[in-house]
């Protein structure tokens, strides 16, 4: 039993899982409204655009980088897409392809700053965080653009197997792809290598700058996807969406056991953490916890996740040394 | 590690499936307190907005009069996504009706439809789903744009002798309410000969940010040395404009008016910086919404254009086109009456 | 210089021993050092000289033996403790604070002269610095910034630092390695002076001629043993060389003779800045070429240039007779070159990752199909290399950091052998590994050569070089100084070529000093650049619209600044110390709502109480941030991103979502933002006072200087004994206090404190970070000033006013902030790069 407890404590993914089980059980016992999977899925839909951002963020953080601009970038893509559709009459089907490409361009710009100027990604993306949302505001103003084709909107209302789970399924599909890429491919291996030691990777012929550039571009691609999904769910576009999305995405990644210092982490962890956030959010929602308390809880969860992770890493390093 | 991951995956699948089965059977004992006493929910645009505090009070009082409990659930920032989650959670708890001040005219449509389908009527308060009115049951609005726009011009005109330059300090370039009022103001100026000596020199926008609103107001004073008045139809705007005029000691040459909260404007009115400004009663607005929500939930009111009903102490009201109900004309606050208002 | 009394023994060591992990570096070293002598430590690289010095200076602690200082047994726990006892170590690579002045580099953390209220007495400090520098005969301005100095001058400053501490024993690790002949002369003159005053000078040098010029006695170390101490008057150069190299070759594996084949690698006229010049050689198939020389001779740099890690200015690299345009390691690998780096832990291994992962890193395509790694093929590959190289390990999935040094080196070797290189460069292949593993590595190299690989072996281990190489090339100071065929290469000859050489003047000497100085003065005066920019923007705007220069507009700009200036002053501290604080806006909001809320419950309260409460609340919140960052080691960005959210949540919880309206706030509070002396509101004066106080704090208090020191060079700060954790706590607490003060002033200025607006609309953290970065503070800490930050705030306020005067959409504001940050970091980065390249 003690051994089991030790194993759980050593593996941050398991912590996320145990927390998920606890949250789910507490939710089920306390609230009859918390009706199992159906409602959780429905309620989780609007977290899924951010969940897509969290997948990209997992890669970025494992590689020892950070991207604070994901939320602003997504909003800029959303605004551009809506304007293209509304003002330039670009068909929505074409925009399904164009939007992720616009996002990729924004991410590519982040990547260029980071790799060419050798400025910490934190400051670069703090700058683009302001810039991207600012541009979205300038282009869109206060208006909101709706009137998208019927086939495009209402992703969260469609049912498969009698459950409103399309966004969640999309997230799972991308998570599967992300998991495969991160854990099974040479690219993923190089991402871990860069996060573990950028210097060693460079000496081993890994093109570190190129991989970082690809990662930021991928994050941009995710911004595009997130923007599309958000537009479909909310049926409209304005500059006000994705407020603080970067924070939620980073929280999910860190909660899932990925080390903020890079080199350690997994997609499974991020997926579990997203589910955890969804379940906790649902429990708090149906329990009528006030929004402000939810805010305090989210912030505290982020800090606690980092502290616990680092303490665990220190613990396992210490015990690793003695053996 | 890989084994552990596999285990977790299987276990999570089992857990979700298991829970679903065990709870999908109806459990009559576990009906929520919401269903027992009947809850009327109100969702403001965001928390921390004093305007809605007063509105909530009115809503709560009306709900009580109809035998319901009132509950407020506010999002932390004024975006539609946060409201969407709250609506879903409240519908899930089978509340009796939802009143909401929507943060978007179109983003919540699908959720509203879903809610109506599940038997929870939606009442829009303070701002409406312009162009999408069919998605909600009733729109409870403050005053129509015509009333507000004309009222503001008349209020300013009466204080500057219907002649001279004035400017408008608004929130943002695309705020729908603001723009509707400003349109009416422009039209009134152009069409009513009474105001032909009044010249609207510029419309500036302070984004409802305190600092930016102050900077804009200060710039107005610099740009137009012969400015006679400022209309700020937004609470942050009017208090900022008043502050600027007070600091510049120009209260006797520049008239500030607009829409404001008594609690923010009292000192300006008392020291003479501002002579008069307007606002409708958010309490009445909330009370009206609470009455309608309660009566619909009890099944005693079927809203449709032309239908008349009694709204408690507000007396008889009538649904207009698009089932909109108007609260009433704005109140004008001045030195004599401002102490009667606490919000 | 006649010594009548028997010499005083200043420092004596008996049987000093030290091991790192399983590797024993010092076995049984005994020595004595006398006051008033110059004592040279000599020996091959790896003989243990630096380790011995580090033990004497308290950097390392000995495992055995004892050390006596003037007859008293001592044990130093830190360099700081050793320095207090009078032992100073001057590193080869100076450990200093490039952003601080010479005087500070001498005194910081070591008893700064103070004035009446504990403030730094700059006059006294500069005077004392000047005196010390004078006594050394060095002409430097104590106020000059360290980053502008040449290596020689930096060394002088370190020396001065030691003397200012009244050091009785001076340890110098290869002080002449980076100096020009003229500078060496100057140094020696100083050393002679010091000897006269009774200081014991111990230094390491490889240059035999200069040792004989300056030293009184020479102690030779070899393989961690003390070979002997000689009086210079009783010995000669050949005896010293014999003592250094006298290691028997007997137990060394020797590469069988081979007939070299075709030329595999041909390097010609390779030059890279100040590191090496005009290097040309070739390596043939089946041949091992040893590249010998001292540390710092440029051998590793040559290898890195061939492998594409280091930029080369000119020269060609040919593999199999074809010129290869190598610009990155991946180019080099494609060309058939492999490089086993010297620093295994840093550049060779992914320490927490598995042996299999480490093995396949450079040849992932070989174990994957369509980019998918096959776990089984990966293990098979690692397994195969385990057998071939006889690596001792439990299983290939084991983390590589659980292996011993020798086995780790085999993993790195395996990675490179798997790429089937035509040319293999190994850099110190057997450093830090035990004897058995050493022989195995030698065996592997010989076998590879037999199979036709061309091998370039960099090694400081002379017997290894002699035994393994078909040819030995010797480098000295960035040039090739000798080449010996097998059989002609003896340890003496190689050592002589690496140390004695008579062409010292031709060597490549670091000459970066001057150009670098120019760039660093430029980057030091960035504030003036910002000022110029501010004036320019002002002139442009005035030209566009005359009203911009009106008194009203200036007043509007002035009153828009106080809140930002106060919060930005706090942010400046965080950025100076290489941190960041994203939670300032939320702290401002929380302090404002708590302090403002007091008036709701206690209407009659004096304004002063609210101010104190607000500042106090901010300080507490800042302290929480500081605790997370400094004690719990949460990166500042994450910690403050978390508190940014949590504090905003608290704002709502505390206020219950209700704003504190103007009604509830006393008129006296608003007065602060309306009236004041010479018709300038009080809160402008308050902000000015905060800015001045902050500037004084940063200038005149140790903690302020520590903030710069930590941002400038965190490692050096730790070594110096700067209280890093306490300083970081102070940084965040002061940042919080500033945000708190701004909180109550927010109430004064705007009359209404709204929980959703205060500090968040517009986002305070973005504004102040923009202001600080625009004001010329370096993103990576260490440099920046309150003056610059205030200018940054002024610039933002001006642009803000301009958009109002010129009626530009306010949405551009956000674009401007983002653009400003990106612009500032771009210029910062370009400036830094220029400085580095020059």
Description:
- The complex is a heterotrimer of chains A (323), B (343) and C (838).
- Chain A is an all-alpha fold.
- In chain A, 75% of the residues lie in helices and 0% in strands.
- Chain A is built from 14 helices and no strands.
- Chain A is globular.
- The two termini of chain A are 21 Å apart.
- The relative contact order of chain A is 0.19.
- Mean pLDDT of chain B is 85; it is low at 1-7 and 10-36.
- In chain B, helix 3 (50-65) packs parallel to helix 11 (282-298), helix 6 crosses helix 7 and helix 8 crosses helix 9.
- Chain B is an alpha/beta fold.
- Chain B has eleven helices and 14 strands.
- Chain C is of the alpha/beta class and 838 residues long.
- Chain C is built from 32 helices and 22 strands.
- The longest helix of chain C has 27 residues, at 724-750.
- The interface between A and C is large, with 66 and 76 residues.
- In spatial order, strands of the major sheet of chain B run 2-1-3-4-5-13
Intertermini distance of chain B: 60 Å
Number of strands of chain B: 14
Relative helix content of chain B: 40-55%
Provide the succession of SSEs of chain A.
Answer: HHHHHHHHHHHHHH
- Strand-pairing-aware structural class of chain B: alpha/beta
Strand content of chain A: under 5%
Give the SSE layout.
The complex is a heterotrimer of chains A (323), B (343) and C (838).
Chain A lengths: L1 H9 L1 H19 L5 H9 L3 H15 L7 H18 L4 H26 L3 H20 L25 H19 L1 H11 L1 H6 L4 H27 L10 H11 L11 H20 L4 H32 L1
Helix pairs in contact in A: 1-2, 2-13, 4-8, 4-9, 4-11, 4-12, 4-13, 5-6, 5-7, 5-11, 6-7, 6-11, 8-9, 12-13, 12-14
Chain B lengths: L1 H23 L8 H5 L1 E5 L6 H16 L3 E4 L7 H13 L4 E4 L8 H9 L4 E4 L12 E4 L3 H16 L3 E7 L5 H16 L6 E8 L4 H14 L3 E6 L2 H13 L7 E4 L3 H9 L5 E4 L2 H17 L9 E3 L5 E3 L5 E3 L4 E4 L9
Parallel strand pairs in B: 1-2, 1-3, 3-4, 4-5, 5-13, 6-7, 6-8, 8-9
Antiparallel strand pairs in B: 10-14, 11-12
Helix pairs in contact in B: 3-11, 6-7, 8-9
Chain C lengths: L8 E12 L2 E12 L3 E5 L6 H8 L7 E6 L2 E3 L4 H6 L2 E4 L11 H6 L14 H14 L15 H14 L4 E4 L8 H16 L3 E5 L3 H7 L2 E6 L2 E7 L5 H9 L17 E10 L3 E9 L3 E6 L5 H8 L7 E6 L2 E2 L5 H6 L2 E4 L3 H5 L6 H6 L7 E2 L2 E2 L1 H15 L15 H13 L5 E5 L7 H16 L3 E5 L3 H7 L2 E6 L2 E7 L5 H9 L13 H12 L1 H19 L6 H10 L1 H15 L7 H18 L5 H25 L4 H20 L11 H6 L9 H19 L1 H11 L1 H7 L3 H27 L13 H11 L11 H20 L6 H26 L1
Parallel strand pairs in C: 3-8, 3-9, 6-7, 7-8, 13-20, 13-21, 16-19, 19-20
Antiparallel strand pairs in C: 1-2, 1-4, 4-5, 9-10, 11-12, 11-14, 14-15, 17-18, 21-22
Helix pairs in contact in C: 4-5, 8-17, 18-32, 19-31, 20-31, 21-26, 21-29, 21-30, 21-31, 22-23, 22-24, 22-29, 23-24, 23-29, 26-27, 27-28, 27-29, 30-31, 30-32
């Amino acid at each position: 039993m003690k051994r089991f407890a030790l194993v759980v404590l050593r593996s941050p993914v398991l912590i996320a899982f145990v927390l998920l089980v606890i949250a789910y059980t507490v939710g089920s016992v306390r609230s009859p409204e918390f009706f199992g999977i159906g409602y959780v899925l429905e309620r989780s839909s609007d977290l899924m655009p951010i969940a897509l951002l969290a997948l990209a963020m997992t890669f970025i953080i494992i590689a020892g980088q950070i991207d604070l601009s994901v939320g602003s970038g997504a909003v800029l893509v959303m605004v551009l897409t809506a304007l293209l559709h509304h003002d330039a009459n670009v068909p929505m089907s074409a925009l399904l392809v164009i939007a992720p490409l616009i996002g990729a361009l924004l991410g590519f710009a982040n990547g260029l700053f980071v790799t060419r100027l050798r400025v910490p990604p934190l400051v670069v993306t703090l700058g683009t965080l302001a810039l991207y949302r600012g541009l979205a505001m300038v282009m869109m103003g206060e208006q909101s653009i709706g009137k998208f084709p019927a086939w495009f909107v209402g992703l969260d209302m469609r049912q498969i197997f009698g459950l409103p789970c399309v966004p969640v399924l999309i997230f799972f599909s991308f998570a599967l792809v992300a998991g495969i890429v991160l854990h099974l491919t040479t690219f993923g291996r190089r991402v871990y290598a860069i996060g573990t030691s950028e210097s060693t990777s460079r000496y081993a012929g890994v093109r570190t700058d190129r991989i970082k550039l690809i990662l930021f571009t991928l994050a941009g691609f995710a911004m595009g996807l997130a923007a599309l999904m958000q537009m479909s769910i909310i049926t409209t576009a304005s500059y006000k969406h994705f407020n603080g999305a970067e924070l939620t995405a980073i929280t999910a990644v860190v909660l899932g056991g990925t080390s903020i210092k890079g080199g350690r982490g997994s997609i499974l962890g991020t997926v579990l953490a997203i589910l955890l956030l969804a379940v906790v959010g649902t429990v708090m929602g149906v329990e009528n916890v006030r929004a402000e308390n939810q805010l305090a809880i989210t912030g505290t969860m982020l800090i606690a996740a980092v502290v616990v992770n680092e303490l665990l890493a220190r613990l396992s390093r210490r015990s690793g040394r003695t053996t | 590690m890989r084994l552990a991951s596999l285990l977790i995956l299987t276990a999570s699948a089992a857990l979700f499936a298991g829970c679903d089965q065990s709870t999908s059977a109806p459990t009559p004992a576990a009906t929520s307190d919401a269903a027992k006493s009947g809850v009327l929910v109100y969702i403001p645009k965001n928390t921390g907005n004093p305007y809605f505090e007063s509105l909530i009070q009115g809503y709560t009082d009306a709900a009580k009069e109809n035998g319901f409990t009132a509950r407020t659930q506010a999002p932390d920032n004024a975006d539609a996504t946060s409201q969407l989650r709250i609506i879903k959670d409240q519908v899930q708890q089978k509340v009796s009706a939802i009143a909401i001040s929507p943060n978007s005219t179109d983003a919540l449509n699908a959720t509203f439809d879903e809610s109506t389908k599940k038997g929870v009527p939606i009442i829009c308060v303070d701002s409406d789903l312009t162009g999408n009115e069919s998605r909600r049951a009733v729109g409870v609005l403050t005053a129509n744009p015509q009333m507000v726009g004309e009222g503001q011009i008349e209020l300013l005109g009466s204080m500057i002798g219907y002649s001279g330059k004035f400017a408008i300090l608004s929130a943002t370039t695309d705020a729908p309410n603001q723009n509707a009022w400003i349109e009416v103001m422009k039209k009134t100026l152009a069409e009513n000969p009474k105001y032909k000596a009044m010249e609207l020199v510029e419309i500036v926008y302070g984004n409802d940010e305190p600092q930016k609103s102050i900077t804009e107001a200060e710039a107005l004073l610099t740009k137009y040395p012969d400015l006679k008045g400022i209309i700020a139809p937004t609470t942050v705007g009017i208090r900022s404009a008043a502050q600027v005029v007070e600091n510049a000691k120009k209260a006797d040459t520049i008239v500030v008016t607009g829409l404001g909260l008594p609690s923010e404007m009292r000192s300006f009115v008392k020291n003479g910086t501002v002579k008069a400004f307007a606002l409708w009663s958010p309490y009445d607005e909330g009370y009206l919404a609470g009455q309608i929500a309660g009566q619909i939930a009890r099944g005693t009111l079927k809203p449709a254009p032309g239908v008349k009903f009694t709204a408690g102490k507000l007396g008889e009201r009538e649904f207009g086109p698009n089932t909109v109900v108007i609260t009433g004309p704005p109140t004008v606050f001045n030195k004599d009456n401002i102490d009667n208002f606490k919000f | 210089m006649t010594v009548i009394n028997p010499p005083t023994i200043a420092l004596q060591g008996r049987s000093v021993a030290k091991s790192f992990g399983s590797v024993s570096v010092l076995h049984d070293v005994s020595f004595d050092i006398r006051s008033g002598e110059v004592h040279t430590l000599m020996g091959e690289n790896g003989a243990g000289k630096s380790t011995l010095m580090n033990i004497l200076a308290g950097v390392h602690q000995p495992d055995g033996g004892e050390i006596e200082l003037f007859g008293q047994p001592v044990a130093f726990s830190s360099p700081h403790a050793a320095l207090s006892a009078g032992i100073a170590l001057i590193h080869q690579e100076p450990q200093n604070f490039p952003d601080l002045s010479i005087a500070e580099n001498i005194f910081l953390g070591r008893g700064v002269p103070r004035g009446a209220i504990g403030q730094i007495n700059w006059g006294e400090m500069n005077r004392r610095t000047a005196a010390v520098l004078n006594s050394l005969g060095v002409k430097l301005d104590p106020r000059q910034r360290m980053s502008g100095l040449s290596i020689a001058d930096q060394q002088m400053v370190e020396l001065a630092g030691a003397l200012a501490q009244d050091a009785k024993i001076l340890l110098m690790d290869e002080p002449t390695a980076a100096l020009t002949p003229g500078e060496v002369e100057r140094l020696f003159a100083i050393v002679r002076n010091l000897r006269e005053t009774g200081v014991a000078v111990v230094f390491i040098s490889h240059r035999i001629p200069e040792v004989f010029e300056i030293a009184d006695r020479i102690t030779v170390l070899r393989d961690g043993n003390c070979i002997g101490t000689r009086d210079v008057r009783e010995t000669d150069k050949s005896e010293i060389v014999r003592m250094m190299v006298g290691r028997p070759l007997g137990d060394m594996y020797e590469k069988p003779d081979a007939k070299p084949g075709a030329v595999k690698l041909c390097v010609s006229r390779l030059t890279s800045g100040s590191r090496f010049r005009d290097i040309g050689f070739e390596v043939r198939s089946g041949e091992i070429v040893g590249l010998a020389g001292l540390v710092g001779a440029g051998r590793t740099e040559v290898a890195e240039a061939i492998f594409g890690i280091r930029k080369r200015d000119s020269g060609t690299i040919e593999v199999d007779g074809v010129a290869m345009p190598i610009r990155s390691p991946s180019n080099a690998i494609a060309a058939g070159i492999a490089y086993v780096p010297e620093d295994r832990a840093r550049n060779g291994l992914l320490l927490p990752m598995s042996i299999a992962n480490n093995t396949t890193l450079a040849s992932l395509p070989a174990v994957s199909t369509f980019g998918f790694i096959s776990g089984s093929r990966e293990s098979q590959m690692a397994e195969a290399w385990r057998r071939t190289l006889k690596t001792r390990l439990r299983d290939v999935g084991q983390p590589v950091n659980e292996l011993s040094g020798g086995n780790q080196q085999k993993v790195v070797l395996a990675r490179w052998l798997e790429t089937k290189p035509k040319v293999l460069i190994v850099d110190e292949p057997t450093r830090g590994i035990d004897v058995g593993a050493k022989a195995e590595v030698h065996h592997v190299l010989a076998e590879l050569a037999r199979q036709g690989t061309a091998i370039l072996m960099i090694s400081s281990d002379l017997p290894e070089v002699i035994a393994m190489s078909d040819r030995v090339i010797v480098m000295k100071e960035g040039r090739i100084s000798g080449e010996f065929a097998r059989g002609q290469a003896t340890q003496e000859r190689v050592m002589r070529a690496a140390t004695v050489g008579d062409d010292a003047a031709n060597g490549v000497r670091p000459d970066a000093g001057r150009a670098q100085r120019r760039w660093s003065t430029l980057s030091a005066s960035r504030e003036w650049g910002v000022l110029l920019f501010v004036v320019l923007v002002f002139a442009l705007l005035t030209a566009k619209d005359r009203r911009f220069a009106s008194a009203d507009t200036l007043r509007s700009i002035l009153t828009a600044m106080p809140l930002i200036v106060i919060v930005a002053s706090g942010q400046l501290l965080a950025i100076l110390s290489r941190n960041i604080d994203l939670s300032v806006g939320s702290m401002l909001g929380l302090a404002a709502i708590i302090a403002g809320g007091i008036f709701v419950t206690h209407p009659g309260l004096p304004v002063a109480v609210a101010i104190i409460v607000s500042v106090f609340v901010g300080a507490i919140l800042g302290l929480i941030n500081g605790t997370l960052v400094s004690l719990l080691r949460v990166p500042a960005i994450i910690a403050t991103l978390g508190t940014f959210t949590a504090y905003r949540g608290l704002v709502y919880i505390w206020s219950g979502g209700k704003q504190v309206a103007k009604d509830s706030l006393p008129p006296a509070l608003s007065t602060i933002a309306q009236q004041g002396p010479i018709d300038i509101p009080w809160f402008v004066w308050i902000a000015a006072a905060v800015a001045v106080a902050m500037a004084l704090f940063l200038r005149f208090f140790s903690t302020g200087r520590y903030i710069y020191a930590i941002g400038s060079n965190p490692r050096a700060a730790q070594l110096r004994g700067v209280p890093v954790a306490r300083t970081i706590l102070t940084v965040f607490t002061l940042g919080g206090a500033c945000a708190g003060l701004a909180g109550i002033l927010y109430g004064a200025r705007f009359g209404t404190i709204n929980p959703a607006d205060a500090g968040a609309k517009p986002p305070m953290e973005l504004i102040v970070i923009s202001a600080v970065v625009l004001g010329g503070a370096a993103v990576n800490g260490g440099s920046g000033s309150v003056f610059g930050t205030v200018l940054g705030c002024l610039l933002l306020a001006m642009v803000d006013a301009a958009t109002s005067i010129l009626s530009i959409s306010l949405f551009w504001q956000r674009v401007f902030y983002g653009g400003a940050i990106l612009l500032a970091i771009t210029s910062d980065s370009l400036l830094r790069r220029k400085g580095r390249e020059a």
